[in-house]
Amino acid sequence: MFLLLRRRRRKTQLGQLDKVLRPLRNEEVRSVVIPDGIGGLIEIDRLVLTDRGFLVIETYPISGHLFGSEQIDQWTQIVDGRSFKFANPLRHIHNAKYALQLLAPKVPIFCRVVFTAASDFPKGRPDDVSTLLSLEQDLQALREAPKMSATSELAWRRILRIARKDGQAATREVTS
Hints:
Layout: H1 2-21, E1 27-35, E2 41-50, E3 53-60, E4 64-67, E5 74-79, E6 82-87, H2 89-103, E7 109-115, E8 119-120, E9 129-131, H3 135-138, H4 140-144, H5 150-162, E10 164-165, E11 168-169
Parallel strand pairs: 3-7, 4-8, 7-9
Antiparallel strand pairs: 1-2, 1-10, 2-3, 4-5, 5-6, 10-11
């Protein structure tokens, strides 16, 4: 029963995320793997094509009081008086942004780490980090950015040709 409630809560939280992204989203791919620019691969939770560029979203279902900054390797979660450490999520999203910049150098790339469970940052929330409650406001800079030309659409198609999803190409090119 507990597992069923957790799944429902997670589905509701992701539904809230989708609701915020819907007005911005032209296209989206999830769990996509691209070259990282240094000989490896990097997975991106959500890559969204908008009128203003690309939006990289990494979601974390972590609740409680969260403490972290861009400069430290380990962040801290405090739940029910207990402390837990987890890797700095900004490192991954900034690496993903760098990899995308190599594939689409003329396209603006916006990044957000989104904590989807009930969480807060008592000592301040780092840049590029959102909770479900703050996400809509945090995406204001994306809404105010200048609209892109066909450059972002061409770069998007190129990324989809290169990208992998679940071990396969994200999209298949039609050959004549």
